[in-house]
Amino acid sequence: MSSEWTVHGSHTVYASPWVELDLVDVEPPGRSRYEHHLVKFAPVAATVVLDDRGRVLMMWRHRFATGTWNWEIPSGIVEAGESVEAAAVREVEEETGWRVAAVEPLAYSQPVGGMSNAEHHVFLARGAEFVAPPVDTHEADRIEWIPLDAVQGMIDRREIVAGVAVTGLLQLLARRP
């Protein structure tokens, strides 16, 4: 017996450049058909930037949707026609003013798999060069280099709560020798 759901069709209820809400006619195995909400997002690219002193580049910012302040890593939506790697590099510079030369894959997650197609691609950049003040000045109140050794405690104290940041930072911590 297959546990794959049957999709009979869908229609869009709302769409914008950032989010789409669909009602999908689904039928789980052995169950009746019903309409399920599906929230669609463009992929997100994020980067953990690690310097040669064992510090990560973090942004202190407010999130109005949750009413919280927290430390985050640079991240943003992948633009049409852009690779996830290019988006990760671009977002670091736009949001922090630091330029990274290259990124390598660190983590991949689907944060709300049952209700959304959201994909988070997290990369690691080793080193960065400050090139100019950030273009996206509304993104953060402060930009600082935080010792990687302090990150686990910050997550425990809920000073780092954004899923993409937690995922990437915990992956980096798990891979340390």
Automatic annotation (TrEMBL):
Its EC number is 3.6.-.-. It comes from the Bacteria. Its cofactor is Mg(2+). One of its GO terms (molecular function) is hydrolase activity. CDD domains: NUDIX_ADPRase_Nudt5_UGPPase_Nudt14 (cd03424). PROSITE patterns: NUDIX (PS51462), NUDIX_BOX (PS00893). Keywords: Hydrolase. The keyword Cell division does not apply. Residues 39-168 form the Nudix hydrolase domain. Belongs to the Nudix hydrolase family. This is NUDIX hydrolase. It comes from Kitasatospora misakiensis.
